[in-house]
Amino acid sequence: MKAHSGEVGVFVRIRPTANFSRDIIECLPDGQTVNIHHKKDTRKPLDPRKIQLSSWSFRLEGVLQDVSQEEVYARVCRRVVLGALDGYNGTVMCFGQTGAGKTYTMTGSTESYKHRGITPRALQEVFQEVQKRAEHAFSVYLSYLEIYNETLVDLLSSLQGSAHPSHRSMVISEEPGRGVFIRGLSLHPVHSEEDALNLLFEGDMNRIIGSHALNRNSSRSHCIFTVHIESRSRTLSDAKYVTSKLNLVDLAGSERLGNTGSEGQMLKEAMYINKSLSFLEQAILALADRRRDHVPFRQTKLTHALKDSLGGNCNTVLVANIYGEASQTEETLSTLRFASRMKCVRTNPAVNEHMDPAAQIKKLKKDVQMLKEELSICNTLVNRPSALHEPLSEAQLAEIDSQVQRYLEGSLKEISITSVSQVRAVFAQFKLAVHGQEQKVNARLCQTYNLGEKDQRADATAVKKWDTRGSSEEIETGNTNRPSSTRAKTQKSKDKQSQSKRQGEGGPRLEREQELEEPDPDSQDTQESQPHGKEPFHPDSTPTKAEAFEDFKLGRGSKLNRILKENKAVLLERRSLHRQLTEEVNAVKRNIDCTTATIQQHRDTREGQGRYSDLEREPDATLLMQLRDLKILYRQRYEVLHDIKAEINYCQHLVDQCRVRLLSEFERWYEKYFLGPEEDLETSMDNTLEQCEDNQLLPESSGSESFHNARYKMLKRRNTRSLCFTPVQRNSSSRSEQRRLPQIPPVS
Ligand SMILES: Nc1ncnc2c1ncn2[C@@H]1O[C@H](COP(=O)(O)OP(=O)(O)OP(=O)(O)O)[C@@H](O)[C@H]1O
């Protein structure tokens, strides 16, 4: 078989019989080809000449005729099991007519260790491998699902205290990363082969066995026994782990309705089985057809449950069970056709790798610890104070705040960098400052700068901040612009001096402009020329913003204010020029219109007189000259007007910029001395994650002991439940008998 390869592995197994029909079923010596020679319409040979002999050839992965259960397992299943332990999903399923040997192939005889089937052998191999692969920690879980008349039945629910197999609240679901799973189906952890066999036999006992015309013990349901495997490396401490599902599927008999001779309940069962198998066939056809995007998996429970087990990333193997007798040729042909279609399905097996978040956190914590230790060594080597990676204390944060403020004001040349946490805190302060500025400027511009309105709350905050912050900052900075009464006085007198000086230099005279939103700075000029009789700021009374703004324009913001005024003056001048020019241009235009009209009038008059020479037809030359000169003048004036308009736009832009700058500077200044920044709140979260303990799976198993122990227990359980109990010989040790069944977790 070709596990890990690109196509489904398909085998045909012929049920041994004394009446093997060699002339119909021909197995070629290559061990892979079976030819069917079939005489059509043999039952009603009305016209012997019409009887046709048809032949079909089926080339498969292998033809299993007269081979032992051991060989079947080795050729069909071993590599799928090993693949599952490596993280590949695997599916082995038996398909065929009722009584053709599907259950014998999958489960085999429960009475004979030698004749046990694929499933118990797979469980044995799983646990042998688990023991061998000591570098990995494996977790193995089992589930056993039966699909009977489109109803899902949990064959292991009896182990959870339920008297009967449960089919309540089970639903087929799909989740990304998890694939298809049955919500509500019990999942049982197993730690040894014997545990696993216990569950297998328990489930088998619960299978619905119906009497049937063709086979008295024929099972009329589909059964999916799933081994869920999870493997984590014991040597590599990474968070990766792999999971896989090994589905061992025993399908219900595939014979057509007419052949069963069923009635009533049997007929109903047969109809369900036919329906699900025919949808299975449709799904297989769709899977085999690479041009088809959609595969109808959801049409029946069987195809939906097997959605990720029929192709895709799964190692899939099909055993087509057929009879050797001539009487079953029709069904044999049908089974082989299905098998050859299944062979066309492509697979692309992939390891199901996952990341364990808990393990990842554990690893990252370890990395952090290691890095901290390394950092501490580096700190020691360069004589740097340690614990720089610890969160900053309140005092440290306050110091950073103060440094940033001084840096922004220009009184501090550099902020000394000592740690990454400190860099972060510095950036946070910058962000806060920028954010505060933006907010204030925007708010101010939006509200058309309503200076008369008092913000009582801001005033109150300002007074508070004043009291708590003022004195220490003054000592620290030594150059603060905080307008304490004395400081404001000094600053104002200095500003006044510089202002008078600038005015003496002959700056442009300002004119009042209605468009300006802030109070006209001209009025301040007037005030400025008078001695400042009032003290603008008092520690016990916060100034209104209007008062503060006036003071700001005289002091710290005087330079900006002056530039603003100058720009506004230029703007006004240009506007005035623009008005003048517009009037001129309009006058010229009116002249042009007037002259044009006169010329036209002259022409009309001459035309009305009737007789005139070509020369006479021409209008007055003086008028024409006049019109030409006017047009030239108009063009010249218009160009100048255009340039002036561009200048006005530019000046307006400068004025706007100055205004925004003045306001933002003022806001920053006002906020610093009267409001103060908002408190930066930091929250920290404690993540408490429980560490996962590795499961240890070191089962004791060897040979047939587990098989017999499990079988004995199954029979004992059956006896307890007053079902038919037949004592059989057993080969068990007392030690094994004392073992308890695996613990069953609540339904997940
Ligand atoms: N390869 C084989 N060697 C020996 N006995 C076999 C073999 N195949 C089938 N049998 C026997 O044939 C009988 C019917 O087989 P089995 O129950 O496995 O058929 P089935 O296909 O599972 O039928 P159903 O569809 O009803 O489940 C059983 O008694 C079984 O032991």
From TrEMBL:
Region annotated Disordered, chain positions: 456-544, 727-748
Record-stated family: Belongs to the TRAFAC class myosin-kinesin ATPase superfamily. Kinesin family.
Acidic residues bias (residue ranges): 514-525
Function: Essential for normal male fertility and for progressive motility of spermatozoa.
Primary site of residence: cytoplasm
Any one GO molecular-function label of the UniProt entry: microtubule binding
A UniProt-annotated Pfam family: KIF9
Residues the record lists as binding ATP: G96, Q97, T98, G99, A100, G101, K102, T103
Bias (Basic and acidic residues) ranges: 456-472, 492-513
Protein name: Kinesin-like protein
Protein's organism: Eleginops maclovinus (Patagonian blennie)
Subcellular locations according to the entry: Cytoplasm, Cytoskeleton, Flagellum axoneme
